[in-house]
Amino acid sequence: MSIAPFFLLYLHGFNSSPISSKARITYDFCVANGMSDCIAIPELPHIPALAMEQMSEIIERQTLPVAIIGSSLGGYYASFLAEKYGLNAALINPAVNPAQLWHEHLGLNRNYYSGREYEITEEHVQQLRAIDTPSLQHPEKFMLLVQTGDETLDYRLAVDKYKSSMRIIQEGGNHSFENYADMLPEIFQFLATPH
Question: Are 61 and 115 in contact (CB under 8 A)?
């Protein structure tokens, strides 16, 4: 596959990790296509303001054009960053209103991968609200991929929010997005193309 060079920032979801299945599949795809030095998969802090700071630093120090893949909560973050920096972004079953969902997680939580405990506070929920992008300035820069069988998020919220963007809506599937690897050539083609 021949694509224009770019730097990819992959953002995992809530309670996920850089060693999640999609993160590893994405990294392996980059390696197979000669982009092993052009990808960052940071472990995102549970504090949204810190996560945004960390991601902004990564974006601002790149010399290549930057593009983002964001999954679930990472898709919510990707929307804000793509709008702020004018980047292409592919969103995989993205969260549209995570602040509402985080109210169910106030207090102690445990990361699925590391087992690390952390606390979510009302202040963190407010930080999430502060980076909402209710209306998109550049919908053409987004590629939305959702599966109707998502058991965690209501896919229809994303379908509505990104109605002016490129959308791939697959019947069935789940929140992890089945057959994600099969979609990567199309995703990378979109991310590498100016919009």
Answer: no
